Amino acid sequence: MKIWHQSFTVLDELGVYHDALMKHFKRIARPDTTIDLHGMVPGTYRTNYPGSDIRHAPLQYIHGLQFMTAAVEAQRQGYDVFAISTLPDPALREIRGLVDIPVVGYGESAMLTACMLGRKFGVLVFIDDFDDLISQNASVHGLAARFAGAMPVGFTFNDVLDAFQDPHVLIERFRQSARELIAKGAEVIIPGEAPLNILLAQNKVSEVDGVPVLDSLAAWVKQAEAMADMRKFCGTKPCRNGYYHNLPEMGRVDEIFSFYGLDRLGQED
């Protein structure tokens, strides 16, 4: 099985994170699963941190076009699953209506898995304004009644990168923030963006005061494997009726990508 992992970061600029992902996936995925890491095109952002852009809805929408072109390329190259590896799940609905291979989202996978571990889940994020987006996504996924809220974790993306060398202080700060969410009714904690998830998983942080801390990346991998298996062994495919699901003709997709200058984006990572 081949999974195309698509990050919202330029992975070439984040060596420690890239290496941590590879190590984690090797431990989590089945022996017959290959996960190939892909990131955004070099030069997409001003720095190695995407959050300055993706905290703004219109800029996140524009950057999401790279996910759409990457999904088409993944299908062309014969990947079994296209897997969005970022909490906001950019263009998830559109990509599912664009390609005919299974598509999984990091945020959606985490939310669905959390619902099997507790009655309500909460999400800790780097970007203050993301609580609006995460709340909206929970509603779109039909999980509004299971959502206890999202709140800033109290530190930044770059703090997490630095903490790969010495994680103890940051982990304690995470625990303090998790306790605030627990006090608001969260029975499962989703640790937001993937770099934080990796840091916690590496240090075996799986609960806070009896409340599970979800390894969202593990949930994402296992959902990707399950969707590919269901396709292979059961013939299970998504709905293809209606506005959001009916696949366009791929030749026309190519023409439109070319018209807007997007055809080069799926070729780079």
Summarize the structure.
By secondary structure, this protein is an alpha/beta fold.
Could you please describe the fold and organization of this structure?
With 269 residues, the chain is an alpha/beta fold. It has a single domain, classed as Rossmann fold (3-Layer(aba) Sandwich). It has eleven helices and nine strands. It has a four-stranded parallel beta sheet with strand order 2-1-3-4, with helices on both faces. The protein is globular and about 55 Å long. The chain starts with a strand and ends in a 10-residue tail after the last helix.
Q: Please describe the biggest sheet, giving its number of strands, its sense, and whether it closes into a barrel.
A: 4 strands, parallel
Q: In the residues, how many domains can be counted?
A: 1
The number of E-state strands comes to 9
- Give unreliable regions as ranges: none
Any guess at the CATH architecture?
3-Layer(aba) Sandwich
| Global mean pLDDT | 94
H/E element string?
EHEHHEHEHEHEHHEHEEHH
CATH topology: Rossmann fold
Output the structural class.
alpha/beta
Helix percent reads 40-55%
Q: In what order do the strands lie side by side in the largest sheet?
A: 2-1-3-4
CATH secondary-structure class? Alpha Beta
Shape: globular
N→C terminal distance? 20 Å
Radius of gyration: 18 Å
How many H/I helices? 11
